[in-house]
Structure formats: C-alpha cells, structure tokens
Amino acid sequence: MNISTIILYLLSLVFLIISILKDRKKTVMGIKKGFTAFKKILPLLIPLFVIVGVLLTFVTPEMINNILGEESGWLGITFGLVIGSVAFLPPFVTFPFGAELIANGAGLPQVAALVTTLMGVGFVYLQAEMKFFGVGSTLKRNSLAFIAAITVALAVGVLM
Amino acid sequence: MKLDKMTIAAIVLIIGTAIYSMAQAFTALGHATFQFVEMLKIVPPIFLMIGLLDVWVPREMMIKMMGDKSGLIGVMIAFLFGTFAAGPLIAAFPVAMIMLKKGARFANVMFFLTIWASAKLPIIFFQTTTLGIEFTAISNVTLIIVYLAGSFIIEKTFSQRELGQIYKRAEDFNK
Q1: A148 contacts on B by Cβ (under 8 Å)
Q2: CA-based nearest distance B68→chain A, Å
Q3: Domain total in chain A
Q4: Is A114 strand, coil or helix?
Q5: Is residue A49 part of a domain?
C-alpha cells in the first residue's frame, strides 16, 4: 500500500464514521449508491484491463528504452507521446518506470512526454470516457493532456 | 449482457495473442489481473465517498463550493480533491459525474480530472525520490499551469446547450 492509498482509506473511514454517527439510515443509502456507481463502471473496466494487458506484453521496457534514448530528440519525444497515450499504467508504477528509463539512458524530455501522457491521455479508455462525458468533452480533455505533455517535455528540455 | 465494442476488441485481442503464443496470452492476462487488482485496492474508499457525497452534500452546497460563482475557492477545492486522490484516471470519472450532478462548474470538474492525472501531492515526495526534485518541480508546475488554463478554455469552447447535455449525462449516470 502506498501513501496515497492510505490517505484515501483514512479519509473515507473518517467520513464513514461521521456519517454513521450522524445518520445510520442515510449512511446505508450512501453505501448502496456508491456500490451502484461501481457496478456501472465494472463492465467498462474488465475489457479495458485485458486490452492493456495485451499491450504491455508486446511493448517491453527495453523496447521503449531503445526508442527514447538521450540522442533521440524530437523523434523520441514523439514516440514517448504516442506510447504514453496508448499504454496505461497505475500512477504508482508510472514514476519508478520513468526513473528506470532515465537510469538506463533515456532522455529527460522524452521521459517527461511519456510519463505525462501515461497519466493523462487514455487512448484505450476513450470509449469508456465518452460513455461518461460524451465525445466532445472526452476528445478535448485528452487533447489538453497531450498538449500539456508536449509543454512539459519542452519545459524539461529547455530548463534542465 | 450486451457486448460492446471494447469487450469484442478485448476478446479478439486475447484470442489473437493466444493463437500467436499461448505463453504471451497468459502473460497478458497476468498483466490484466495485476492492473485490475491495483484498481480494486482503491475501489472501496472511492465509491464509499461517492455514495456519501451523494447523500450528504446538498446541491446548494456543491454549487456554493464548486459552482459557477465559486471562483478561486472552487478551483482550489478541485485541486485538493484531484491531488489527494489515488488510482487511475478512470476511477475519477464517476467522482466527476457526481460533482457535475450536484452543480459543480464544468471548468472546475475538468481541472479536477486533469489534476487527478498529474500533480499528486501524496506522491510528489515519492516522485522526487525516483525522478529527482528538479524534474518533479518543473513538470508539476508546468502541468498545473497548462491544466488550469486549459480547463477554462475547454469550458469556453462548449455552447450552453452542449454543457447542458453533459450535465444531463451526469444526471442520468447517478440515477
């Protein structure tokens, strides 16, 4: 368990206790509502994780490392953006993964591009996101994350 | 259950992989299971909070906190919610839906989503230990600026009618 998850559990536990103390009936209703929300996204999640699993099997860290080398320049940044947009890792795996790439000789702007798109651009869950927010909002949010990744890569490249 | 495109794509992919190599297919399923378990770890607190938020926070309060006239406070609440949360972005979608349903401003919800997927205070310390303090500082500051500006720009690109449709979706989702 990482610190972020622990904070989340503690926080929700505090809310739960306050809620029970204030109104038991309302708390039960809240738990039921939360569970219904979870049941609604579960069918979206299972195929998603299978697709990501297949992707992660064929795209190995060594492969990414070769592409994102310090001399790879704009091409490396572009690959970082594309790979990060398509693949998907839990946030807590993303940073050590980025660090590992840097330790193995990947360039900083390239890794910045990869890490930012890994976190923010979800090509594999575009469809799921559309089911929540509709097409327009989904495409715009993903474009924003993509632009942010380019900006971060540039900032890191220029400032470091 | 009706099969959607994602499910069909997943089935085709995994069968294709199995035909190509049975071992690779098992590796893929192993990755999938790992990701799924990682996700399940954060499911109880997140959905508990969604449910509690739904029954305890009245619409008027959410509008006051994150609505159209909430100004800087709304932005800050969006930031705090996003930065302290854990888990993949997809777990943030239902949270965003409940915020919209309760009348939060679209730009604030967008900012919340983008922050969820980037600047996370609890893991910033961890990020500095793995990626270095300079890298962490530059990337997080840049991200916050781009995402803050971007969230409001995105809101501006929508017409009132389009925004209304998004709120309608949130309404339907939380029924």
Answers
A1: 114, 118, 142-143, 146-147, 150
A2: 18
A3: 2
A4: helix
A5: no
